[in-house]
Amino acid sequence: MTSTQFSQDHKIQFLFPIALASLLVLGAVRFCLDNLKSNQFHLLWQSGFSQIRFLRVPINVSADEVIEDGCNLFEGKWVWDNVSYPLYTEESCPYLVKQVTCQRNGRPDSFYQNWRWQPNGCKLPRYNALKMLEMLRDKRLMFVGDSLQRGMFESMVCLVQSAIPDGRKSLRRVPPRKIFTIEDFNATIEYYWAPFIIESISDHATNHTVLKRMVKLDSIEKHSKQWEGADILLFESYVWWMYKPFINATYGSPDNVREYNVTTAYRLALETWANWIESAINPRRQKVFFVTMSPTHLWDWEWKAGSDGNCFNETHPIEGSYWGTGSNLEIMGIVKEVTEKLQVSIRLLNITQLSEYRKDAHTSIFGERKGKLLTKEQRSDPKNFADCIHWCLPGVPDTWNEIFYAILLQDYRKH
Ligand SMILES: *[C@@H]1O[C@H](CO)[C@@H](O)[C@H](O)[C@H]1NC(C)=O
Ligand SMILES: *[C@@H]1O[C@H](CO)[C@@H](O)[C@H](O)[C@H]1NC(C)=O
Ligand SMILES: *[C@@H]1O[C@H](CO)[C@@H](O)[C@H](O)[C@H]1NC(C)=O
Ligand SMILES: *[C@@H]1O[C@H](CO)[C@@H](O)[C@H](O)[C@H]1NC(C)=O
Ligand SMILES: *[C@@H]1O[C@H](CO)[C@@H](O)[C@H](O)[C@H]1NC(C)=O
Ligand SMILES: *[C@@H]1O[C@H](CO)[C@@H](O)[C@H](O)[C@H]1NC(C)=O
Ligand SMILES: *[C@@H]1O[C@H](CO)[C@@H](O)[C@H](O)[C@H]1NC(C)=O
Ligand SMILES: *[C@@H]1O[C@H](CO)[C@@H](O)[C@H](O)[C@H]1NC(C)=O
Fold it and tell me: Which numbered ligand comes closest to the C-alpha of 183?
């Protein structure tokens, strides 16, 4: 390894947050607008003009929806499929935030919407919104994490919402939560902002910055008491940890702030989370998933030797094997160790590898920064302004949810 390679490698892990630092500040303006929008839906729902109730129906899992035990859903390839995909459109889903609606924001190509994930050993069942709703009946499904997890939440809402008549669904904000209610199914799909899972000074739903971070490695209760009782929980936390090699944190005494190596801090945080899982989760009634890191595509020399751009202008997935250096293997190892040691069985949605291929699917310059769409000047400077962390919707997070759906369907079949 040459010394320049080494210095680049060293730069890698902790570089992407330079972009992040300003990306992850959400504006107050956006908050107001969103609130207004969700109030409209809320009113609609309150008026309750439709009395349609869905009948409780058993779900038929047909033979082609059965997945053989042992098929690894996370190993496979992307195949072009502009017949079945996308599963919804920006226009058909009113719940998407501006940050992810790349078409509306001016992205010229839409190829990124037309790829289907094909596992090597089996087929993913075709997504069926009514079956998903039936599996959510009388349940509370909750996504916990940062803005990437919010993308997965929004994708899930869009995937089910088309099957629910107008006026029978609503999206409310109860910061740091967002709650999508499906009255006729007595179900909610929720999102909870907790970028480190454990407590931190970045826990305010809209006023937070990655520039100043302080995590409380042994504290989780302020968050966890709002997760208690949720029937299905999905956790995710990664990118906020990766701003610098060290992070200010407390452990034990709340007054004793000191710098921790990020990997050490991540392990301690995950152990705090694991202790909560073991003390609070009833595995007979609740399901817990952990979503592995969502990859970034910040340095295109990683897939195109000699370049010095980023994901901007990419229109096709990477072919052949690929793993970007932004996805830290040590952190991956910690996730593996901590989750394997748990007494309560939880499941991994190991979406990192499949998403690694998708350099084409980020919001790039067709997203937001500090709560506002990029200006023309900013767009003309993709090197500094392209967002290669978040994903357009419809897009890659839909696939994460299709896999999640496939797993729930197999559970249902076997129960
Ligand atoms: C499931 O199959 C049964 C018997 O074939 C049928 O009566 C029922 O309507 C099906 N349910 C659904 C949700 O398709
Ligand atoms: C779908 O993709 C094929 C192959 O690239 C292309 O020939 C066809 O025009 C596309 N259809 C639509 C509706 O975009
Ligand atoms: C709604 O679901 C909850 C469980 O989440 C259950 O306790 C309650 O009885 C359900 N209500 C109705 C009307 O079925
Ligand atoms: C955001 O938080 C900072 C620091 O906690 C505070 O000084 C500032 O007033 C807050 N801004 C808003 C709009 O609430
Ligand atoms: C942090 O700790 C890990 C493992 O203990 C080590 O591999 C890594 O080099 C450390 N990082 C720094 C910046 O000291
Ligand atoms: C930790 O906090 C101190 C005091 O605010 C600050 O000087 C230092 O840069 C912080 N360390 C990190 C890694 O952010
Ligand atoms: C982006 O792609 C377009 C169309 O292929 C091309 O005209 C343009 O020069 C590219 N821009 C950059 C900065 O690579
Ligand atoms: C996730 O999958 C990758 C390979 O795709 C593997 O290297 C990694 O160990 C897996 N992570 C966990 C936590 O099992």
Answer: 3
Residue nearest to atom 8 of ligand 3 (CA): 138
Please report how the helices 329-341 and 262-280 are oriented relative to each other, as an axis angle in degrees rounded to 10.
Answer: 20
Q: Tens of pLDDT along 61-112?
A: 999 999 999 999 999 999 999 999 999 999 999 999 999 999 999 999 999 9
- Record the tokens describing residue 230, joined without a space: 């949720």
Assess whether 26 and 90 both reside in one domain. Answer: no
- Do 181 and 52 reside in the same domain of the chain? no
Nearest CA to 209 out of 146, 270, 268 is that of 146
How many separate domains does the chain show?
A: 2
C-beta separation of 294 from 351 below 8 A:
yes
Q: Is the same domain home to 51 and 164?
A: no
Select from 347, 352, 403 the residue to mutate for testing ligand 8; criterion: most ligand atoms less than 8 Å from CB.
Answer: 352
Q: How far does CA 45 lie from the centroid of its chain?
A: 27
- What pLDDT, on the 0 to 100 scale, is given for residue 357? 98
Counting from 1 in the atom list of ligand 5, the atom nearest the Cα of 262 is 1
Find the DSSP H helices in 162-294. 221-224, 262-280
Q: Which residues constitute the domain of residue 47?
A: 16-58
Question: What local confidence, expressed as pLDDT, does residue 146 receive?
Answer: 96
Output the pTM of the full model: 0.89
- At residue 370 the predicted structure's pLDDT band, cuts being 50, 70 and 90, is confident
Percent of the chain with pLDDT over 70: 87
* pLDDT recorded at residue 355: 98
Instruction: Give start and end residues of each alpha helix (H) in 137-231.
Output: 147-161, 221-224
Same domain, 175 and 124: yes
Please tell me the distance between residue 308's alpha carbon and the centre of ligand 7 in angstroms: 14
Cα–Cα separations (whole angstroms), residue 184 to 6, 50, 354 = 57, 10, 35
Residues 167 and 289 in one domain: yes
Residue 218: both structure tokens together:
């042994």
